[in-house]
Amino acid sequence: xxxxxxxxxxxxxxxxxxxxxxxxxxxxxxxxxxxxxxxxxxxxxxxxxxxxxxxxxxxxxxxxxxxxxxxxxxxxxxxxxxxxxxxxxxxxxxxxxxxxxxxxxxxxxxxxxxxxxxxxxxxxxxxxxxxxxxxxxxxxxxxxxxxxxxxxxxxxxxxxxxxxxxxxxxxxxxxxxxxxxx
Length: 182
Description:
- About 30% of the residues are buried.
- The strands form 5 sheets. The chain has a 4-stranded mixed beta sheet, with helices on one face. It has a two-stranded parallel sheet with strand order 1-5.
- The two termini are about 25 Å apart.
- By secondary structure, the protein is an alpha/beta fold.
- The chain is built from 4 helices and 12 strands; from the N terminus they run E-H-E-E-H-E-E-E-E-E-H-H-E-E-E-E.
- The chain is globular.
């Protein structure tokens, strides 16, 4: 992935003010003129006009319903496969907070992992719970969300081989469940 600002629309001062007011309505953090070097493995890149770090699905849904279709959005995962331009990104960067990295085991032996969960954490969790087939994730840097987006894999195994379904949210704030096509 390469985050650039040449093709994005200019985020208006009025919209920034609207987002600042909105930030009082949620518990999650919204930063302005945020240095993106802090959000990627390579410690490179410029700033973004707005950086939203939702800590709950409710806050993310509210934010997307209000701003998801008004501005250029970029969803940033672990930042292990992203090069960020030194220019200022004239849009909104969303990086999911720690509550999106939860992981749990259903009684049926199915693992549910948040998209901000690291691939390594999922692999370790599977091992601890004696669930095979996820060992390949232990050496892939990044998060589940990014891995799903690019169908990451190694050792002849990919995300598509272990996926049952995903729960996603669109830019309008609508939560969707999408089954895997096998």
